Amino acid sequence: MGESLLLEPSLAQTLAVSTAKTSKLSLSTSTQRSLATWIKDNIRKKECCFYVDGDSKGICKCGYQRIHHVDDSIKPENYLGETWDRHRHVHEVPTDAYGDIWFGGLGQKIGKYVRVSSDTSPDLLYQLLTEQWKLPPPNLLISVTGGAKNFYMKPHLTALFRRGLIKVAQTTGAWIITGGTHAGVMKHVGQAVREYVLSSGSMEGQIVAIGVATWGAIHDRRPLVHLEGRFPAHYSLDMPSQGHLSCLDNNHSHFLLVDDGTHGCYGVEIELRSRLERLISQQPLGNRESGVRIPVVCVVLNGGPGTLSTIFGAMLNRTPCVILEGSGRLADVLAHVAGLPVTKVTLSVIHQLMKRFFGLEYDSFTELKIIEWTKKIQDIIRMPQLLTVFRMSEDNHGDVDVAILQALLKANRSSESVGMERWERQLELAVAWNRVDIAKTDIFTEDSQWKSSDLHQAMFSALLGHKPQFVRLLLENGVCLREFLGDQTTLCDLYTQLPTSCFFLRRLAKRIQTEKSRRSQTLSPRGAAGRTISLSHVSDEIRHLLGSFTQPLYPLPGLHSTRYPKEPKEDVAVTLPPKEQLELQASPDPDRGPGRDSERGEETFRDPGGDLFLWAILQNQKELAEIAWEQSRDCTSAALAASKILKKLAEEGAEEEDEAEEMRELAKHYERHAIGVFNECHCCDEERAQRLLIRISSSWGQTTCLRLALEADDKSFVAHSGVQALLTQIWCGELAADNPLWRVLLCMLFFPLIYTGFLGFRRDESIQREAERSAELLTMESLTGSQACTRRKYPVHDLPARNPLGLKPLTVSTRLVSLFTSPQVKFYWNILSYFSFLLLFSVVLMIDFQTTPSWREGLLYVWLISLVCEEVRQLFHDPDGFGFRKKADMYINDMWNILDFLSILLFIIGLAFRLTTRLFYAGKVILCIDFIIFCLRLMAIFIISKTLGPKIIIVRRMMLDMFFFMFLLSIWVVAYGVAKQGILIHNEDRLDWIVRGVIYEPYLIIFGNMPSNIDNALFDIKACSVNGTESQKPKCPILNEDKMPAFPEWLTIILLCVYLLFANILLLNLLIAIFNYTFQEVQDNTDTIWKFQRYELIKEYHSRPAAPPPLILLSHIFLFIRRIVLQRPPNSYRAFKERLPEVEEEELLSWESFMKDNYLLSCRQQQSQSMEQRTTDTADKVCTITELLQREEATGSVALVKRLTRLEEQVSQSARALQWIMDTLKAQGLHSKEEAPQLASPGKLKRSESEPNEPHRQEKTFYHVNARRLDYPDSTIPRFPVLEEKVPWEVDFILYNPPVLNGDSQDQTDGSEPDSVKRYRNPGGRTGMKGKGALTCLGPNLILDPVLTRWRDSERSALEFLAVWDQEDGLWTLPGGPVQSDEPLPDRLLRIMGQKIYDRIKTKVVEVTKVHEGYVDDVRNTDDAWVETTVLNIHLDRRSLLMADINRMAENTVGCVELVRWTEVSSRTRMCSYQRDALRRVAELHQRTF
């Protein structure tokens, strides 16, 4: 069907197409074809199939012109003689308008649109939105309704609405649904979206604004029509020529254009929009099975009678509504009556408000319409839990976004869900919206009592949604990570649901694919992980990232059990013994059984905070990781492990450089954390801090903090003074660290000096410190007269580490062993040995290199054999458990090991040549070159020196720079050399002289050796060979006839000058600049690098045998016999790795956690005092003050009016009180000489009009509500609206004209009634409907509601009743209903229970108690027929046979339509109002609290 609209210009269409091609949002060709195919198969439009002239000639009654009808509709044979009917003469055909829509202009995005039939299934529309248009399911649906025409709002209210609407949509991921046209409230929504787009300046994270408009009321529709779709369609806003039609709003993102086959009719989309909103509200929130559905809220601005019907229908569907006071018309009417009791919302009040806010439009309203609207307003006021009014003059809502979210929570709070289920649903909503502020103010209140288990689902959702603020809030409000991750299934689910963009998840999928390589199909990352991921796979990948030296973090099932330790007791204060005592005490720990180590190995204790921290780190989630790290116990190890993992991920897995850089920055961040915590520990207690470094961490792969720092290349951590103090202590061994070097060297030569106190030992210092401390305690006791406080009174973190008690002094043998096993002493002996080796080597090369090896040379060979054996020992020595492959890689990557290998290899080659007569001299040359390499190896020895070590590092860096410089230099050398050689020499064929001329001579020129062959003045023909036949002379240059060089002298001199300019001046100065830059750059870090590298040297000499080469061969023989022959395990070195007893480890970790808290506190203080934070806080305060001032300015007049109104009310009350006093005095006969003044008040007239029936209201304040619902069940005829004040029959209601409805006759709407009806009158008052309606008879319709009760147990802990589930209404009901005249119980009870149980219950009727009897406020009631009930209580013995039969019957109803269950008698039970009241009476009967 075509439309009478203008065609768009071809230029505009071309521009639209070209813009769409460059847009990122435009669909690809294949996607367009797929969308077009789907829409053709599923989406329909409507068109008229029977042309009938309407009021105007040439225009059909459908509104379209004759030319826009198909030929078959002009003279249809099927409809001849019929009157045009919209339902019969409009049929559906495939739609012809869909695709992308572009409005033109700067900053405009391309939207999507489709023309749909008004009968389209909402399921298809939701599928179109989510699957075809790729919209993510919403976390909230905001339906904005109100005035369809342009209206005025105050600027401040407009700004509040736009800002709040966008904020709530942006933060919660909401969809906004409006009418979609460029007018009224829809225009305000579009402007809000427009301002957000312009302010954000980003195409990402767009606001989803869906316009549901009437197709027949859209202006300029022709550009949208195309059978194959428009991609895009150019649509222009032609406001001046739109007439009674409307233009689409250019700021909405999606359009559903509803078509009913008519043209020019508004409101066609209302029904379909309502059904779509209802369908969306039934979808699960976030694709979870938590039972929470997508919430819907209606926001109202302005509006008229149609808006009132929309609000009324929405609230009947339990949709909360937010009214913006000050937006005009209906919104202000509702805002003024909201909060008032229904009895105050009278017809006269609504008349006044309508006249006030609708202005001239009020005169067109009829009395019956105002009565109907008043009834709807009264029903709306009865649902205060669903009605929220946003008032600028009140501060309880803040912004509009807060009001919207609080309205949803208020509605959820008053829903049928009760107890913790209600709070959990609200929390789930807040998590989905990511609104921590709402959760703090409205959910985590004093009224809500949370257990950790109640918050687990919200915690899981917050973690998966990457919402760190919510995670912190949940932890602060009671989430226990030990309980949350107590089941490994939760942790496994967290890894299973990692985002597909996560590199770690792809690694897991790859590992699973490798294990299942026998399968032919290829698993996607999500599919593979979703089916087969387990913690063993996670453990293997983490071990790959950490290093093979670690053990699996999550042991395989069946081998180990993993559990979380109990909470440490805070009052435990046991100090840790120092390392010396643990190493030297021979007696076992009395608290530790003989099998404790093995038991501990079988059961792995996990840190839940560490597990969560690891999960966050693997996703590169900084904020989540920060929160989890704060909750972890082994925090230093965790931070260092994170640094290692992140650097490995950045090296292997980062596909983008930005992501890799983020990982490296995060790794540095946690290195700083580790340094900060360790610094706090070291400042508090140095010995404990050192124990922390070498403690084996069971939570992080059975490794140590020191090892993790080294593997992560955390140089700054290793360079910390505390770590260096530990390394220095290990370096010195049992010797004191403050011994002067000359004393150590002197004792090495004259060891008896160690028995004279000449050299200090750490054991002696420990004994002396303990003696001094004991003396101090004795002095304190003598001064105070009381014993010193025991340490157990103080927390563990307030105590210094316990010094060794009862340590014995070192014996003569132990002092000697301690001296020579010290790594420091070993090092000095090895230096002396190495110098001796070099001396011997040089003597052999220069003096004693004979054809037959001498004894000196033989000693040299033995010496070299000892060096080879030591290199082999170092290669296979693996105390950290790296494995041979990793150890070999580490050995090869060390430059000094490469020098060792090269020197030994050259020595072996030289030795092999030297032993042959023919290659004797070549062998000597090789050995001489090898001597150079052995000398260079001295640098590795002196790297331990604090003075020389950093300089050696600088030399290494400069050597790398020099290699790059040599590449640049070689270009100039070769370029100049080839040019010079070609100009001077003709056809030189001797390779040695070519190399000399091309490379050697240009290289010497750089150092000032000027060539003589480029200047004729220095030419000597005797110094060269003319033909190049003399091997000892260079070939002469090209000669002329005078036997002089014929080359152009000026050219060679210019070439030399240019070469010297670039090579000597430019490149050499460049090299100097490079060296200077390298020196400046490295100088600041050389100390750190040196401290980091000295660890390997210290570790090498710590594990090295005490004897230096060549005596070290004896130690190698001993080790060979011990390991290979006797097969004994290697010695463990506790200086680098130590396993603590469980109690001491718990105390050490508790102390570390306390230090971590101190560190975090100091960090927060520094951050709060930083200039940047102060600037931010000041800016926030200024913005808050500005907003308050603006709000005060905008609401000042409103507040003044309210104050004056309250003042008038108080004056009116005072006047009435004085009048009452005067009347009372006159009644008692007291008279005054003067006449009493006439008292009047501004509210007197108002009182006389609006409160005539006040005494009557006070006598009876309740009227039936359900019986006055406008929609009568199972009928299309609505009730006549009956206002609250018109319910009593005694009150006159002249306009009352209810329809008549009888179930066995035709419905009558003229108000007439048969004579048999006139004698019945509903005792509850008017209902708005006459006849018997859906009831069986006129007058009272009796029902019986039996309440079968029992005690839950013998202690009578709870009273229960037998309830039946009504699936249609979603309520629990009593098994009652109508009764036959000859039966004491209802037929429904017989149908539910069966004949046998029914007969046995019938025998109990004589024992029943009548609980209640009277009128029931039922929706089926009419003026002439109503329901009355009798509630009986039948209490059963829980041990009787009847009870057993009823229990079996209830079990058999599981899965049936009518589920029967024993339910506690409680106000939390979901029941209708009168049955809940009956239960309350039953509870009072049995003296139970309801």
Overview of this protein structure:
The chain is 50% helix and 9% strand. With 1490 residues, the protein is α/β, with parallel strands linked by helices. Mean pLDDT is 79; it is low at 1-27, 526-531, 566-603, 788-805 and 1240-1260. The longest helix has 57 residues, at 1171-1227. It has 51 helices and 23 strands. The protein starts with 9 loop residues before the first helix and ends in a 5-residue tail after the last helix. A ten-stranded mixed sheet has the order 8-3-4-9-7-6-5-10-11-12, sandwiched between helices. Strands 17, 18, 19, 20, 21, 22 and 23 form a seven-stranded mixed sheet that branches. Helix 7 (305-316) links the parallel strand 10 and strand 11.
Short description:
This protein has 1490 residues and is of the alpha/beta class. 50% of the residues lie in helices and 9% in strands. The strands form five sheets. The protein has a ten-stranded mixed beta sheet, with helices on both faces.
